[in-house]
Design brief:
CATH architecture of the largest domain: 3-Layer(aba) Sandwich
Number of strands: 10
Number of helices: 8
Order of helices and strands: EEEHEEEHHHHEHEHEEH
CATH topology of the largest domain: Rossmann fold
Bound molecules: adenosine-5'-triphosphate, magnesium ion
Distance between the termini: 48 Å
CATH superfamily of the largest domain: P-loop containing nucleotide triphosphate hydrolases
Strand content: 15-25%
Structural class: alpha/beta
Strand order of the largest sheet: 6-7-8-3-9-10
Shape: globular
């Protein structure tokens, strides 16, 4: 039996006159990997921020393990599109910001951090500074930092979009490897449909603003998934299917952006 981790009930959100989210409800199980795709401006980031407790909904509620979310907490870890590492701190102390704020400074925490940095492939780089790292390495630090508080839920908003195509693919396989080890529940926003299919148990397709979940696609592909799975007919079929679902919305939102 799968166990419900996150319950979203009737979340709505507006910014002034702009209706961004309309009554979104869903349930996510413990250990599930969920991706969210949808046209630009449909409210994906807003949705993630509400779950993260960084923003509040006008109505509805979000519960994590039955507890109502009312603000940020160490039970949730965030990874954003742009890394927001502190340039004056080395990798080790950047990774430890979360536990530090939570008052958890200890030798045990330190050895956990070292382990995490190894896990994301940065063993040996503990005393480098952000400016000495590539974009891919900086996003690995971001991931380690989000994991450092040992969150139940990992919220990732286009974490790999600033990376080149090859680095991005490597990060995808690394993320799956890390996820398979710890089985965190993950909510992952991306514009790249093949990334969503590759990573996920289910893909939530968001419709054009006001955002709502217009379709949920179960990705029935075996795990572990080698990168070569992306060339299998079944994989390509999933990507085509999802692309067809959002194509019109994406076109409309691109035109809207260009015509103002
Ligand atoms: N703090 C804010 N104040 C006013 N409007 C906002 C604010 N944050 C977001 N919006 C608006 O809400 C809508 C949804 O924004 P959001 O960032 O959630 O979209 P998104 O789906 O993440 O888009 P993208 O794919 O481009 O990242 C947009 O029209 C945006 O302009
Ligand atoms: Mg966004």
């Amino acid at each position: 039996m799968s166990e419900v981790k996150l319950t979203v009930s009737g979340i709505s959100k507006r910014f002034g006159d702009l209706e961004v989210l309309r009554s979104i409800s869903t349930e996510i199980n413990r250990g599930e990997f969920i991706s969210i795709v949808g046209p630009s401006g449909c409210g994906k980031t807003t949705f993630l921020r509400i779950i993260g407790g960084l923003d509040t909904a006008a109505s509805g509620e979000v519960r994590l393990d039955g507890r109502r979310i009312e603000g940020p907490g160490t039970d949730r870890g965030f990874v954003f599109q742009q890394d927001n590492l502190l340039p004056w701190r080395d990798i080790l102390s950047n990774t430890e910001i979360g536990p530090e704020i939570g008052g958890k400074r200890s030798p045990e925490q330190r050895s956990r951090t070292m382990q995490l940095l190894k896990l994301v492939g940065l063993g040996g780089f503990e005393h480098y500074f952000p400016r000495q790292l590539s974009g891919g390495m900086r996003q690995r630090v971001n991931l380690a930092r989000a994991l450092a508080v040992d969150p139940d839920l990992l919220l990732m908003d286009e974490p790999f979009s600033a990376l080149d195509a090859q680095t991005r693919e490597i990060m995808q396989t690394e993320l799956l490897r890390i996820w398979e080890e710890g089985r965190k529940t993950v909510l992952f926003v991306t514009h790249q449909i093949d990334e969503a299919v590759y990573l996920s148990d289910r893909v939530f397709v968001f419709g054009r603003r006001p955002g709502r979940i217009s379709e949920i696609i179960d990705i029935d592909l075996p795990r572990p998934r080698p990168l070569s799975i992306k060339r299998t007919p079944k994989f390509v079929e999933y990507v085509d299917h999802i692309w067809k679902l959002i194509e019109e919305d994406v076109r409309a939102s691109v035109l809207e952006e260009h015509t103002g």
